[in-house]
Amino acid sequence: MIRVRLPEHLRTLAHTESEVELEVGVPATQRTVLDTLEARYPMLRGTLRDHDTQRRRPFIRFFACGEDLSHEPPDAPLPGPIASGAEPFLIIGAMAGG
User: pTM for the whole thing?
Assistant: First the structure.
């Protein structure tokens, strides 16, 4: 099981708690996590990734084990502690402005 922690606005949209558990195939990658998340919570489609290109939305960031994985290839394997469920995969809404 992979643990995914969602920001407040996505929790509200998905009508769920801050953390969800997902059964993801091997290897666990950003793409497989997001595909599984969107399949379980269809209302999140288009909020994390563009519908057509599947690229991450500009103000969404992905963190795992204290590292920003936002610019990593979507098919790169996630760190072991994420894949084992020991650590959560964090989805964060980035802040902008001044």
Answer: 0.90
